[in-house]
Amino acid sequence: MTDETRQHRFATKAIHAGAAPDPATGARAQPIYFTNGFVFESTEQAADIFAVRKTGFSYSRGSNPTVAALERRVAALEGAKAAIAVASGQSAVLLVLMTLMRSGDSYVASPRLFGGSLGLMRRLDGRYDLKPRFARGMEPADFEAAITPDCKAIVCESIVNPCGFVMDLEGISAVAKRHGLPLIVDNTLASPALIRPIEHGADIVVHSTSKFLAGSGQVIGGVICDGGTFDWVKAGGYDLINQPWPDYDGLVIPERFPETPFAVACRLFGLRDLGPGLSPMNAFLTLTGIETLPLRMERHCSNAKAVAAFLRDHPAVEWVSYPGLPGQTGEANVARYSPQGPGSIFTFALKGGETAAKKFITSLDLVSHLVNIGEIKTLAIHPATTTHRQLSPSERAIAFVGPETVRLSIGLETIEDLIADISQALDQVG
Ligand SMILES: *Cc1c(COP(=O)(O)O)cnc(C)c1O
């Protein structure tokens, strides 16, 4: 990235950051480099790249030019020092936890998280003894109360999947700083167009790019961003980042890469050792999606607000959880962190309970019944029996997902058509 692109504003960066016309051919779109290997100039260069004495492409599991363009673009949009693209959002969360911790360590986690993250955390606890300590509530004080001496990080989502709650990122970051812990924020539901968590004190940001970043529901992917803000050496105790790597000639990552030691540890361990790299094709489609991100997010937010207001006033609806409406819990956090609106994923409950919730979903015509979120198409799902089914009823209650709850992801269709479809489906619920 040149200094010029660094100074550009958000929509310009979404189109230009991290990619330039191809110097070999002049191609204006980012070329897709479908190659596993890259020919070395010399045996010395090959050895230098393998020992991380020099940077360069060697094998596409660890890095690839098309994937690198996506990494630079997401890093620029988040205001991060570096980013690593991976095969899915799920693997982004996995690599962050595995890079920071070893068996016996713990971390504080938000009680309301994406169901897949909760499932992963439970499995890592049971099989690898990486212990999540769930905060009792959503306030910074709840996170602080859950911290124990073996704690290595704090994890939350910027906007919570599925209830749309916007977290008090600066409050939670103040807790993290007081206890010398890195704050990890899953920014999938906001995207950097709505919230840039590093500006509010986060140290690491993760994304499922399968959602708003790619935008069209075609490709799975994930990104890990290193804010370069956390002092790992001072904090101590993060072996993989701070201790010499004997098989890399005693490499001490923070000495050679003082700006982005977390990103480097994550790439060496997460991609070279564990291996969930992103395909260049998926990186290309995601880059293409990001070019229109700011425009799409405006429409996602305005459509979601209109649908939420319609549902709130409908007699068949018990409640709507969309903090972008006046009088809702968490309204102040929306005004402070996400003034454009809290995204387009939210829940609502039907007075007729589970039967009505399921009848509503199957009565939709324009709106698709499927499990993705953050697409240009509007989607609906019954989370208690799908995304959140692995949780116990009490865990589901904490996550704000009851049998009567429907999750919507509002897309970019003409609003009158969306409301007409939702209205006819509510009529069928009776
Ligand atoms: C979807 C999602 C993930 C997992 O991402 P995949 O790309 O589906 O693996 C992680 N976090 C949040 C908040 C998500 O919505």
From TrEMBL:
<dbReference type="Pfam" id="PF01053">
    <property type="entry name" value="Cys_Met_Meta_PP"/>
</dbReference>
<keyword id="KW-0663">Pyridoxal phosphate</keyword>
<dbReference type="InterPro" id="IPR000277">
    <property type="entry name" value="Cys/Met-Metab_PyrdxlP-dep_enz"/>
</dbReference>
<keyword id="KW-0808">Transferase</keyword>
<dbReference type="InterPro" id="IPR006235">
    <property type="entry name" value="OAc-hSer/O-AcSer_sulfhydrylase"/>
</dbReference>
<dbReference type="InterPro" id="IPR015422">
    <property type="entry name" value="PyrdxlP-dep_Trfase_small"/>
</dbReference>
<dbReference type="InterPro" id="IPR015424">
    <property type="entry name" value="PyrdxlP-dep_Trfase"/>
</dbReference>
<comment type="similarity">
    <text>Belongs to the trans-sulfuration enzymes family.</text>
</comment>
<protein>
    <submittedName>
        <fullName>O-acetylhomoserine aminocarboxypropyltransferase/cysteine synthase family protein</fullName>
    </submittedName>
</protein>
<feature type="region of interest" description="Disordered">
    <location>
        <begin position="1"/>
        <end position="23"/>
    </location>
</feature>
<dbReference type="InterPro" id="IPR015421">
    <property type="entry name" value="PyrdxlP-dep_Trfase_major"/>
</dbReference>
